């Protein structure tokens, strides 16, 4: 090679050498920092958050799912409640295709003359078809903790002319139903939002007549493809675990719905 050209190449290389060293140094630095950040984040995610406090039944964590309330029951975080502002979503036209509520009603095997409690009735999406199925001699209690939801149901009831719906403004720890008053308690995508699941379940068992049933309809947490936020889904095992402390018998789990399971318990005939 021409000596003069070799000299020029050496000059060019010498001019870029500091920049190359600088780039390599910065790259190495970023690699180290990224590794530290990733390790720190991974460690934070894998560590079980320490309980901030406990009242003996419920445990509270500061670090929790953003869609939960930071309150845990039997290892499950309680989800945030859907407000009345989302009532239109409950009545969406595509709900039949997504959830098949007509198939749910068929699976419940309702009979004329029965008393049904629709707890977390929302906009009354299922309250009204159930009222028609139990007939004029039957009753449907529409239970809600939001007066705005009950107002929506009352307006629809007046329009439809149904007389067998009774509205109940419940509390977060009590559905406020009379003892031994209902044959079936239905909760559709509701139980996982109860602030006080133990107290609510205890009161619901009291409200059931002997032989009465409780039906939990919950999005399947076992299936990650169900497009619902994690804390708004429940597994069958979790529901059965939480009901095992009450005088209830598991009857069956019905898996005919596209996204939810129907988990049914019965109050023994000997219970009062």
Describe this structure as you would to a colleague.
This protein has eight helices and twelve strands. Strands 5, 6, 7, 8, 9, 10, 11 and 12 form an eight-stranded mixed sheet that branches. Strands 1-2-3-4 form a four-stranded antiparallel sheet, with no helix packed on it. The model is unreliable at 1-48 (pLDDT under 50). The longest helix is centred in the first third of the chain and has 44 residues, at 3-46. It has two domains: 1-47; 91-266, Rossmann fold (3-Layer(aba) Sandwich). The chain has helices at residues 3-46, 87-90, 95-99, 101-108, 127-134, 147-160, 197-207, 236-243; strands spanning 53-54, 59-60, 68-73, 76-79, 115-119, 139-144, 165-169, 182-188, 208-220, 233-234, 249-254, 260-266. The chain is an alpha/beta fold and 272 residues long. 38% of the residues lie in helices and 24% in strands. The chain is globular and about 50 Å long. The chain starts with a helix and ends in a 6-residue tail after the last strand. 29% of the residues are buried.
Low-confidence stretches: 1-48
CATH topology of the largest domain: Rossmann fold
Looking at the overall shape, the CATH architecture of the largest domain is 3-Layer(aba) Sandwich
The mean pLDDT is 85
Sheet-strand content, in percent, reads 15-25%
Structure annotation, total helices: 8
Backbone structural class: alpha/beta
Count of structural domains? 2
**Biggest sheet, open or closed, and with what strands and sense?**
8 strands, mixed
What is the rounded distance between the termini?
A: 104 Å
For the record, the CATH class of the largest domain is Alpha Beta
Rg over CA atoms, rounded to whole Å, is: 28 Å
Shape: globular
How many beta strands in the DSSP annotation?
A: 12
Helix fraction? 25-40%
User: Which assembly state applies to the chains in this document?
Assistant: single chain
The CATH superfamily of the largest domain is identified as Vaccinia Virus protein VP39
Order of helices and strands: HEEEEHHHEHEHEEHEEHEE
């Amino acid at each position: 090679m021409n000596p003069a050209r070799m000299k020029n190449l050496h000059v060019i290389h010498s001019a870029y050498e500091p920049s190359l060293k600088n780039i390599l140094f910065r790259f190495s630095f970023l690699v180290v920092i990224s590794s530290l950040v990733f390790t720190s984040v991974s460690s934070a995610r894998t560590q079980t958050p320490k309980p901030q406090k406990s009242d003996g039944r419920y445990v509270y964590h500061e670090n929790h799912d953003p869609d939960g309330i930071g309150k845990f029951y039997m290892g499950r975080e309680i989800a945030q409640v859907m407000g009345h502002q989302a009532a239109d979503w409950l009545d969406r036209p595509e709900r039949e295709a997504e959830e098949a509520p007509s198939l749910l009603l068929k699976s419940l095997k309702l009979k004329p003359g029965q008393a049904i409690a629709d707890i977390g009735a929302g906009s009354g999406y299922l309250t009204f078809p159930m009222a028609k199925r139990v007939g004029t001699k039957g009753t449907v209690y529409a239970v809600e903790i939001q007066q705005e939801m009950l107002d929506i149901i009352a307006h629809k009831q007046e329009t439809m002319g149904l007389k067998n719906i009774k509205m109940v403004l419940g509390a977060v720890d009590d559905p406020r139903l009379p003892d031994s008053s209902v044959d079936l308690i239905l909760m559709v995508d509701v139980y996982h939002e109860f602030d006080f699941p133990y107290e609510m379940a205890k009161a619901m068992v009291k409200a059931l007549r002997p032989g009465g049933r409780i039906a939990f309809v919950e999005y399947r947490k076992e299936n990650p493809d169900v497009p619902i936020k994690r804390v708004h889904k429940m597994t069958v095992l979790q529901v059965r675990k939480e009901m095992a402390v009450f005088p209830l018998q598991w009857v069956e789990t019905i898996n005919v719905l596209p996204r939810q399971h129907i988990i049914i318990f019965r109050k023994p005939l000997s219970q009062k």
